[in-house]
Task: structure prediction
Amino acid sequence: MKADEFRKYGHELVDWIAEYLENAGQYPVLSRAKPGEVRARLPEHPPGGPEPFDAVMRDLNEIVVPGLTHWQSPNFFAFFPSNNSYPSILGDLLSAGLGVNGMLWATSPAATEVETHVMDWLIEMMGLPAAFRSTSPGGGVIQDTASSASLVALIAARERATGGHSNTAGVGGGRLVAYTSTQAHSSIEKDARVAGIGSDNLRAVEVDEAFAMRPERLAELIAGDKAAGRVPFFVCATVGTTSADGVDPVAEIGKICREHGIWLHVDAAMAGTAALCPEFRWVTDGLEYADSYVFNPHKWMMTNFDCSAFFVRDRASLISALSIVPEYLRNTASEAGTVIDYRDWQIPLGRRFRALKLWFVIRAYGVSGLQDIVRRHVALAREFASWVEADPDFEVANRVPLSLVCFRHKGGDAVNQAVLDGANASGRMYLTHTRIDDRLTLRLSIGNQRTQREHVEAAWATVREMAAKAAYSE
Result:
């Protein structure tokens, strides 16, 4: 493809994306493709020679799009939001066009310094502790996901606990113990496996009626493990659990961690964005005790995947755990110690210029524009919850601190399963579920920037319609 063709097709593709996003609500939200259906329509063998771009776009429209679940639909209420926005898309396009690898400051100084600056902006925008600023011993870095950020935190904590000798006799001699709540994201257990800690050495701490970790139980488990000769080294607290938006008492947990010299990591993957608004800044309560913190702009801050904001109180712990310097990466700037090399803050060596899209979003929306979106979504969630509470056949199953409503029909699991299946099969919306108190519970997550009150009203109407059908069929 030559430059003039790139210009031509680039314009066409931008038009295609704009039209798709303008009409995202018209598609069946959940893909109706059957297993293997998309692949069966693709040619068995790759083309022997170049194909026209028009042919590629035709297959995109006829094969790929029908096989998509439309996360950008205003009727997408499943899992969590995964927003994009026009400024974010343009920033990602520019990153791809520049094609730089920001593994070292020297490989593209602007890639590093824009990222450092944007991470400091986030601290100011969200009222995060000054200890996370780049001008302190800490700092921030963009990871791909919260799962990776939590893994990096776990590894840094492991190396701190073992003095950097975790592999001399196995990982901590098998004595290292980590803790999180029963409601924490599954990635924490996966991270424990990857880091060599193992699932057996990850304690699941019970939660209270608000699905928040019980700090007194955490203290009991730590005391028991220490008495048994084990080494408690890592606690992950969650602000906004995936199932029910539970919020762990970070300050109380943090005091326990300080007492025992344990690394405290706080995972606020979705809920963290709420701190843009001063009235929701309770989501940052207790962060003064945290050694590391992560939230995802790629969920609720209009920045397309992948963009996870990760902060540490002491960058030296992170770098000492992850830095290996072969000869071919040595350079004057790094040797002088006057620059940040983000390769030492993550698992991979290479890294994309992710900061561009976040920089574009913050400048295009401004703090006030992003605050407006968060406030609107929280208000919609609370209004939806009020409709559920007013219906004698339904009940709200969580406290709805932000924009996730967990609810269920009082008729039991079979009715709720029928509601879930019927709503998703209708194409009008997409819901997911969880289990609360061992009962099937529906989740309605509001976070798509295109979602308006009319879409939430339509979702509630669909839920009630499917409940009526389920009741009638019985």
Summary: The first helix runs from residue 3 to 22. The longest strand covers residues 231-238. The CA atoms of residues 275 and 281 lie 4 Å apart.
